[in-house]
Amino acid sequence: MATPSTSLTDITLDLEAGALRLARVLDATTARLWQALTTDSQMSAWYPTRVEIDPRLGGTVTLTFPGAEPERVSVLDLVEERALELGADGDTVRFELDPQPGRGGTLLTLIASVAPDGAHAANLAAGYDLCLDQLQTLLRHGPDAVERHEMPPPEETVARYARELNIPGDL
User: Fold this and answer.
1) How far apart are CA 147 and CA 37, in angstroms?
2) What long-range pairs does 89-92 form, CB within 8 A, spacing at least 24?
3) Order of strands, edge to edge, in the sheet holding 91-100?
4) How far is residue 43 from each of residues 27, 39, 68, 95, measured CA to CA in Å?
5) Which of 71, 101, 139, 145 is the most buried (most CB within 10 A)?
6) What is the reported pTM?
7) Tens of pLDDT along 6-46?
8) 71 near 64, Cβ under 8 Å?
9) What letter would DSSP give residue 85?
């Protein structure tokens, strides 16, 4: 398990499972965090794209990156206030919510699919960790306080995650 010392996020890379996991306790109730994951304006505030989400099993999610054509993915799994999985063509991102009343919030575990050789895993880790920073800002202070960080993430951040995850460069 790799846990970057400068991050509040526990990050692990499991190449056998093809998964990058980021886990962080966020200062919000499960209901509030669910709203930030399933409401267009809320998700668009912290995710690096404009998001239109139909939050129901089989629903369509449209992701529009600046200067790019819209990308459509599907809601593959949805358990109200517990789990949301989005994906298309084998690429998935899953959000699991676990109430942590003793820790003052909700544990969010984000699981993103990665290539078997770990290609781009450091880039994904850096990008999603920035997203979780933005999500925490949204939850604490509202959408006007979120400073947008467009992707790709800064090269020095990607290099740090490549070292932390023991990836020889970002393949």
Assistant:
1) 18
2) none
3) 10-14, 19-26, 105-113, 91-100, 83-88, 71-79, 60-64, 50-53
4) 16, 6, 18, 13
5) 139
6) 0.90
7) 457 899 999 999 999 999 999 999 999 999 999 999 999 99
8) yes
9) E
